[in-house]
């Protein structure tokens, strides 16, 4: 019998009792941010559960102040045994056979907050960035994406750089401009260089793009100078979010040789509000692609695993009734695994800290419909897409990009909800 909650959850919901993703929310205007867990159309207020003394396992009974914080960093720092304990406490508390919360109307009233806000201003719940992000790194782990970008930017002879098959390439992103789903993105201005013979121009980006990605949220992290072993790296990852690494292709193409992306990406990166734990994703793990050549020993894992997560990106133009699906991809296409990314990041002694964000890189698959950005889908604007009859080379003002992702279980989904953002006009 599948685990069931006393809270009714629609079979299509992303948030059944098997998921229990973590976020941070404000139950109403002016109230303090607090951690919560999504179930069906509700958020469980973890500060209320902690205040009621219900985190009573051996670890959390001494550390339940981690649920009276404006972000999840303190909980992340506690590590995997505490995460496991919290999950089993919450799964028990929410199960249909457990009376503690089910039959306590006063506690239910305090701890269960409707996620779909009612129309009234008073109980408009607000979802916030769940973590304080000290550092954000973005990898480049899809071979299909690397090949397509290489062909477009560097030509078809050697599209994938020689180092790519030996190490998970990355660049340091900008943590300050990571924003929560629903935040508008102002079209950036910057320099572009349309062709060899013309001088550079300055103005609003003419090639604004999305990048369909996921990102790992780092747990305890490591001490400076002490790398994480690749076979222990999974214990350092709390969970995953959806991510859109907005990219201004014209700014990027002109600025990024030889030091890598800078202003073409640092104007905004959107993440989804709910962190789905690796524990909830475990039933959906699958073998990662076979790596050829074999990676160096520090990247060779005993078990190399991905997750079967269906991913979609949609674009909804201003005033359009419906959005159009532009990408259909899957997390399982990634060549370098999350654990290889994390181990590689620390191999020189670099320390990761709780709440650090590690983007996977754009998740493109082999089929043209699975390409994870407009640069690939329109081949740098040469082949416009049709969105319900309207042509698109790159994003226009008013376009909303919506990324979704979920794993299909037997009679339920473990999903990520949505990660969305709308392009608004540049500054004058
Ligand atoms: O190959 C290039 O020149 C550029 C690639 C990217 O812009 C991708 C990037 O940000 C990393 C990724 O998302 O995979
Ligand atoms: Ca990226
Ligand atoms: Mg970005």
UniProtKB/TrEMBL annotation:
Residues 139-419 form the Fumarylacetoacetase-like C-terminal domain. It catalyses: 4-fumarylacetoacetate + H2O = acetoacetate + fumarate + H(+). Its cofactor is Mg(2+); Ca(2+). Residues 18-115 form the Fumarylacetoacetase N-terminal domain. Substrate binds at residues 140, 154, 252, 256, 362. InterPro entries: Fumarylacetoacetase, Fumarylacetoacetase-like_C, Fumarylacetoacetase_C_sf, Fumarylacetoacetase_N, Fumarylacetoacetase_N_sf. Belongs to the FAH family. Keywords: Calcium, Hydrolase, Magnesium, Metal-binding, Phenylalanine catabolism, Tyrosine catabolism. Its EC number is 3.7.1.2. The active site is at residue 145. It holds the Pfam family FAA_hydrolase_N. It comes from the Eukaryota. This is Fumarylacetoacetase. GO terms for biological process: homogentisate catabolic process; L-phenylalanine catabolic process; L-tyrosine catabolic process. The keyword Cytoplasm does not apply. Ca(2+) binds at residues 138, 211, 213, 245. It comes from Morus notabilis. GO terms for molecular function: fumarylacetoacetase activity; metal ion binding. The keyword 4Fe-4S does not apply. Converts fumarylacetoacetate to acetoacetate and fumarate. Involved in tyrosine catabolic pathway. Catalyzes the final step in the tyrosine degradation pathway.
